[in-house]
Amino acid sequence: MMKNWRIIAIGLIFGLLATGAIWLVSQPPRGEMVRLLPPPTLKPLAVHVSGAVAHPGVYSLPAGSRVKDAILAAGDTVAGANPNALNLAALLEDGAKIDVPLLNPPTVGVLDPTVPPPDRKSLSGLTNINLATQAELESLPGIGPVIAQRIIAYRDENGPFTTPEAIQNVAGIGPVTFERIQNLITVEPPS
User: Fold this and answer.
1) Using CA of residue 82, residue 83, residue 84, residue 86, what is the dihedral sign?
2) pLDDT of residue 1
3) Rounded Cα–Cα distance for residues 50 and 153 (Å)
4) What does the pLDDT read at residue 77?
5) 155 membership: H or E segment, kind and range
6) Which residues pair with 185 in a beta bridge?
7) Using CA atoms, how far apart are residues 80 and 168, in angstroms rounded to an integer?
8) Helices then strands (H, E): number in the chain?
9) Predicted pLDDT at 190
10) Is this structure's pTM higher than 0.85?
């Protein structure tokens, strides 16, 4: 009889344990559910590509892009370019400027003092806005250092001006300023 009592007690203990385990498993979870957020999207980079490339300008590239990607976005290099002067594998930063140099940059009047620099004034004495230095541009009425720098940056990015009126495409030069300088400027090619 004692043996039966032990079996019943052990069975009762296992039954209570099993009932408790089932009760714990069947309870709804407590607390708030964890929600996973999507990975953040990285902001694209704005990069200025200039120099010996097919299409200089500002390009938007994905984060993690390299110098080579920026050059390819600008239409790749042109004949005579020296991309090996740059680290093509360097990571880009937002707002970076990449200037692709030429293999043999022009040296007129710089390395050879016997060669005179190009004449920035035309035969008529007008200032050639495609060749003028910052100081020469500042000598024009209504053109200060900031506007002169904008003119130089504009022609570096967009190529030479095709007409004197095209200078109005530069920020800060409107019809009033153009009227003051129109009889003092030219876009003639150097002779």
Assistant:
1) positive
2) 62
3) 10
4) 87
5) helix 145-158
6) 127
7) 32
8) 5, 5
9) 47
10) no
Instruction: Say how far apart CA 45 and CA 65 lie, in whole Å.
Output: 8
Angle at 166 between CA 50 and CA 155, to 5 degrees: 20
Q: What is the pLDDT of residue 115?
A: 46
In this structure, what are the phi and psi dihedrals at residue 175, rounded to the nearest 5 degrees? -60, -35
Name the token pair of 68.
């080579």
Q: Which residues of the chain have pLDDT under 50?
A: 107-123, 190-191
What CATH code is assigned to 106-191? Answer: 1.10.150.320
* Residue type at 121 in one-letter notation: K
Rounded to whole angstroms, the Cα distance separating 128 from 121 reads 6
Domain locations in the chain?
Answer: 45-100, 106-191
Burial of 73-98, coded b for 16+ CB within 10 Å and e otherwise, reads bbeebeeebebeebeeeeebeeebeb
Bridge partners (DSSP) listed for residue 105: none
Contact 59, 49 (CB under 8 A): yes
Q: Say if residues 92 and 72 touch (Cβ distance below 8 Å).
A: no
Q: What is the structure's pLDDT at 149?
A: 92
pLDDT tens, position by position, 121-143? 444 578 899 888 888 888 888 88
How far from the centroid of its chain's Cα atoms is residue 142's Cα? 31
Q: Report pLDDT for 191.
A: 45
Amino acid sitting at position 4: N
User: How is 27-48 classified by DSSP, letter by letter?
Assistant: SPPPSPPP-PPPPPPPPPEEEE
